[in-house]
Design brief:
Layout lengths: L4 H23 L1 E2 L2 E2 L11 E4 L4 E3 H4 L3 E7 L4 H17 L4 E8 L3 H10 L6 E4 L3 H5 L7 E5 L5 E6 L1 E2 L1 H10 L3
Parallel strand pairs: 1-10, 5-6, 6-7
Antiparallel strand pairs: 2-9, 3-4, 3-7, 5-8, 8-9
């Protein structure tokens, strides 16, 4: 049996929401977990930004930092980015810095994606997964919140909602 292009489009339209729900259930969607015992220090890192600068611990010192580990091919990452874009203006004035870290992809691929879907905060590239390996990132999206002393206080694999992030920022001292 062969199918027509119209049939294939209809199937894709019908299946895309179902596939998205399956993907969300696989990566999780929720409140994340506060890190017990005050958390480990954020490992030293230095990555290139799409703006051509280097960024690392020194530039983030003394701030509450949200690290968003993502990839251009990751549909749940795009949903997480929408939540972060909406939240960023509200919390950036309280000493909270957001940093998007694209993992495992070449800079040109990330640059092209970000040109179409810009972030209002720095986007870094980790093409060799160095930072994600240091932090044992096992899936995407993963969000990590670091307090003003540089300790990890929140970590979540999957989508974090607004309330969970606001609570994490409060625990981090913002």
């Amino acid at each position: 049996m062969t199918s027509t292009p119209g049939f294939r489009r209809a199937v894709r339209r019908a299946c895309t929401p179902a596939l998205l729900l399956v993907a969300l259930s696989l990566v999780g969607c929720g409140a994340g977990e506060p890190v017990a015992g005050g958390g480990d220090p954020l490992p030293e890192f230095r990555l290139a930004s799409l703006a051509g600068e280097q960024m690392g611990n020194a530039e983030l010192a003394g701030k509450v930092v949200l690290l968003d580990f993502w990839a251009t091919w990751c549909a749940p990452c795009h949903l997480q980015a929408d939540i972060l874009r909406e939240l960023y203006p509200e919390v950036s004035g309280r000493g909270v810095e957001f940093v998007a870290i694209a993992v495992g992809e070449p800079e040109d691929v990330v640059r092209d994606f970000v040109a179409e879907h810009p972030f209002p905060y720095p986007a870094l590239v980790d093409p060799e997964d160095e930072m994600s390996a240091k932090l044992r990132i096992l899936g995407l999206p993963t969000l990590i919140v670091v307090d003003r002393e540089g300790k990890i206080v929140y970590r979540n694999l999957g989508i974090s909602d607004r309330q969970a992030l606001l609570a994490a920022f409060e625990r981090a001292g913002a």
